[in-house]
Design goal:
heterodimer, A: about 400 residues, alpha/beta, Rossmann fold, 7-stranded mixed β-sheet, 16 helices, B: alpha+beta, 6-stranded antiparallel β-sheet, 1 helix, about 25% helix, globular
């Protein structure tokens, strides 16, 4: 009898496309590599970022409007650009699994939206203290009742004081650039923190825009699990230490002093990330018309609406400035104080009911500027913000 | 990719519903092409209107459904078909501008 093993057709060894990519420095990826412009959705832009990010593991649970992005990530897993990928049980499980993956020293990615983010928030808010480098893509949507799937970024207010680094992208281009930058900054030794890249769902994820991207045959260097503020866990050799430092994880053993100093260090690390973000984002803010007496300060999709509003103002002969905030944590307090020192009126358009950006501006500029800071315009629950609304608010605050 | 010929402005859709608007201009007439967010990528299309600008200095316009090009809002499902339409429209607008100039004189 012939040997069935010898007769079996030779299985073709699967070549992972990610293995064929050339590793380049972050500087080359962000500033030097030739780019071509494509007209693609935000979900597709995020997919192209993930393709070049050298991701080891992606875990998520579907929720609108995030689902499409992680479906695209699934294609990347199939093609061999992501080494491991699975759908978690739900968001608490996903976010806990991301913590575990990152602690074992691999580059970890997840994504969620609105209610999913809130569900996973218990685990997410433990990431910074555990010094977990990871990237969470957050496609914002309504979380409060009556529930909707339209853009509303109130969920960002829940992220601001957890010790996470929080970036807020304006458009599809940002949703390509920011995730790549997020991985690099997250894994800096003196940072070692998770980064959330938020965008306003649908307006960015489900609409097309121009995105300038480098070739798909390059990728970021892999994560070095040992190059970290805290050592990676050895998950291959039991018993793995579930906690890096038992007294830190066990609250009834913890001294308040230890908790305070631990949190102090987390927030100091957020501040230390600023120098990397300034370099890779080309500044924590973008300022248009810096000498204007009226300034619109915005983040996310509200920036795009504001750009058009200041263009229309210019047609009417009024110069209005714009500060685009790219990073919410660390908050660019120094840049905003400098930019607003001679400003008379400030408008803070927001896609949420809470007005978290207005509050940030008030506390940042208190004692540094005499400008009147208008609490709006504000839309939420999926309501639109036409440019006329911003122009009307500008007109109103001049009276 | 849409043609950049006669492209005057690319901006966020001013009505606030999301998406991007391309404004093409040939003197007094032009085309507003809008790509809006859709639940599925495959559903994303171009909503196109022929427009007439209100003055020479600004981009304020009225939708113009009285030309031979379009009596209503048109839908294009890909860039190629829209580019073909734009090419024809630019020639048509040139002729229309000349005719209207003659009528004024």
């Amino acid at each position: 009898m012939s040997d069935p093993v010898a007769q079996a057709p030779q299985q073709k060894e699967r070549v992972r496309k990610g293995d064929l990519q050339k590793v380049v420095t972050p500087e080359h990826m962000f500033f030097e590599a030739p780019r071509e412009t494509q007209f693609i959705t935000g979900s597709e832009a995020a997919r192209e970022a993930i393709r070049r990010a050298n991701v080891d593991i992606a875990i998520s649970y579907p929720i609108t409007p995030q689902s499409e992005t992680m479906q695209q990530a699934g294609y990347l897993y199939d093609e061999g650009y992501i080494k491991d990928y699975y759908r978690g049980e739900e968001e608490i499980g996903v976010m806990a699994a991301i913590a575990g993956a990152s602690r074992s020293g691999v580059r970890s990615l997840t994504a969620t939206s609105g209610p999913g983010l809130i569900r996973g928030l218990e685990a997410i808010s433990s990431w910074p203290g555990a010094r977990v480098p990871a990237v969470l893509l957050d496609m914002c949507r309504v979380i409060n009742t009556p529930l909707a799937i339209q853009p509303d970024n109130i969920e960002i207010s829940f992220l601001l004081n957890t010790g996470l680094i929080v970036l807020h992208g304006e458009n599809q281009q940002d949703f390509f650039d920011y995730p790549l930058i997020a991985f690099v900054v997250s894994e800096q030794v003196d940072v070692t923190l998770p980064v959330v890249v938020s965008v306003d769902g649908f307006f960015v994820t489900h609409a097309r825009g121009h995105v300038s991207i480098p070739s798909a045959d390059i990728k970021l260097p892999p994560r070095d699990g040992w190059k970290c503020a805290v050592p990676a866990m050895d998950n291959e050799n039991p018993p793995a230490r579930i906690s890096r430092d038992a007294p830190i994880q066990k609250s009834n053993f913890i001294s308040y002093h230890m908790h305070a100093s631990w949190q102090q260090e987390v927030f100091a690390a957020v501040q230390r990330s600023a120098r990397y973000l300034r370099k890779y984002l080309k500044g924590l803010v973008e300022i248009v018309n810096p000498d204007a007496e009226e300034m619109i300060v915005a983040s996310g999709s509200a920036v795009s609406q504001s750009r058009e509003a200041i263009r229309q103002s210019a047609e009417l002969g009024r110069k209005v400035g714009l500060i685009k905030i790219k990073s919410l944590r660390p908050f660019p307090a120094q840049e905003i104080r400098e930019a607003c020192k001679n400003v008379k009126r400030i408008l803070a358009p927001e896609f949420n009911q809470a007005g978290w950006l207005h509050k940030e501006l008030c506390s940042t500029l208190y004692g540094y500027s005499n400008a009147v800071i208008q609490p709006g315009p504000r839309v939420f629950g999926g309501m639109t913000m036409p440019t006329e609304m911003i122009l009307e608010w500008l007109e109103e605050c001049r009276k | 990719m849409l043609t950049h010929e006669n492209l005057e402005l690319t901006r966020t859709q001013p009505d606030g519903n999301g998406g991007v608007q391309f404004l093409y201009r040939v003197k007094n007439y032009g085309v507003a092409a809008c790509s809006r967010p859709k639940e599925e990528i495959a559903q994303i299309n171009w909503e196109v209107d022929v427009i007439k600008f209100k003055d020479a200095n600004t981009l304020n316009f009225d939708v113009c459904h009285t030309t031979e090009l379009a009596a209503n809002t048109l839908t294009f499902h890909n860039d190629k078909s829209l580019n073909e339409f734009l090419k024809k429209a630019f020639v048509y607008f040139d002729e229309l501008n000349v005719l209207e100039g003659m009528m004024t004189k």
